[in-house]
């Protein structure tokens, strides 16, 4: 009973929290002060909660796409770059919309453009994987840096997406998206939470149904477990691998589009804020469970907001939360290996007996 995954996971959370408090103490903040600042940043106001929910929505989308590719035996490390291309495409459409355009169509056009941008970027790595056998881990990772550089290029180049300079202090960023392309708020009291949360939850449910209740999900699992056996069964392994990684890129692209379609509605350097890498972490920790994707996304989404308030309120570096996340990831990953090994050992003993 003490080795149940939930028990071990809770223990990992406690250990990570102790590590975080120790780091805060070395920075000059006491446990009570640190806990209060972290709690206020996560739940202290409608603004904090709304920001955390928006963060969680982005992580859900990236992790949901990651899970699709992972089910087919691929690891998409390129969420960050796919977000960048999604943000660029979303901005290009959003700044071009006429003001009289219906909001439903405007937001749809922005997010479709974002999905296509992310999918196109991921398809590069997918093509190299299925045609040349190149590791998708390496190609998607390297494409992240190209994507980040592409954002820098388009927001600095006046001929592309940079807003007209009004002074020497004007930040290199795009024009604001037109109002029809801006995602709506959920309407919660004094909260910046947007419909991104609804979009993400729908996506998580849809992916869960796809993977667990459809022939496509079964074929993806077959491809991931044994490409050779899948070919003998007549399943197009290359098509499913290409499609799964491309769809994963589309999900990350939508996440990038949602960022630029949310206040302040501009594309700027560093707009992705590392969500692509954090979404990868969520996908790895969830281990194929869409319920876990939603739960872990909420946990990390709130932690990100809490970390920002730690820095503002008590002067603890926001990177402390990143360290806590890393410790949590290592412990939970180790716990999953431990519990899996334990189950296999017990099964083997039962068979021998």
Roughly what is the average pLDDT, rounded to an integer? 85
Through-space gap between termini = 22 Å
Structural class: mainly alpha
Helix percent reads over 70%
Rg to the nearest angstrom?
Answer: 21 Å
Largest beta sheet, briefly? none
Provide the β-strand percentage band. under 5%
Unreliable runs? none
Written overview of the protein:
There is one protein chain. With 353 residues, the chain is an all-alpha fold. It is 73% helix and 0% strand. It has helices spanning 5-26, 31-43, 46-71, 79-94, 103-132, 136-156, 196-213, 215-225, 227-232, 237-260, 275-286, 290-314, 319-352. The longest helix has 34 residues, at 319-352. The radius of gyration is 21 Å and the shape is globular.
What's the topology here?
Blueprint: H1 5-26, H2 31-43, H3 46-71, H4 79-94, H5 103-132, H6 136-156, H7 196-213, H8 215-225, H9 227-232, H10 237-260, H11 275-286, H12 290-314, H13 319-352
